[in-house]
Amino acid sequence: GHEINVQKYQDSPLTASCKLGRLDLIKLLISYQAEVNVMSYNNEFEYAGSPLDAAISGGHIECIKLLLQHGAYLHLQSAMVASIKRQRLQSLEFLLDKFPEEGAALACDTELGLLHYASKKNNEDIVILLIDHGCDVDSTYNDKTPLMNALNPRVVA
């Protein structure tokens, strides 16, 4: 047989399936003992992510749930940042619902500036979600409020 977790500077079959949101393939690979925490690398030194990272970045909620049920390691802060960076509202909603206290604390942590980053990306739905979870619209990050980040600098200049 073939090695199910094979990869060398490319995605494992499980990670590739998670990127595509292929729940059927993910179930099949897990049934054949695919490692849910296998890590992919772009090269010898650059980490590219895990199957869970791929599912979160793709907004594939059912895939995220399945991986977590099978013991996938979740670094909540990284997952929330990836959700905002990739503008995956569904992923962020899922994380905030699944981990309400820790998620809200991270979302509103002014040292992380997630609300500020979301406002800079002009993603109104994510900004509203973060505010609904208690983020302070008047907080500052790098001496700017979320509103200042949302404004086009050419308009203010």
From TrEMBL:
ANK repeats lie at residues 47-79, 115-142. The keyword Repeat applies. Keywords: ANK repeat, Repeat. InterPro entries: Ankyrin_rpt (IPR002110), Ankyrin_rpt-contain_sf (IPR036770), Multifunctional_ANK_Repeat (IPR051165). It comes from the Eukaryota. PROSITE patterns: ANK_REP_REGION, ANK_REPEAT. SMART domains: ANK. Pfam families: Ank_2 (PF12796). SUPFAM superfamilies: Ankyrin repeat. The keyword Transport does not apply. This is Uncharacterized protein. It comes from Lymnaea stagnalis.
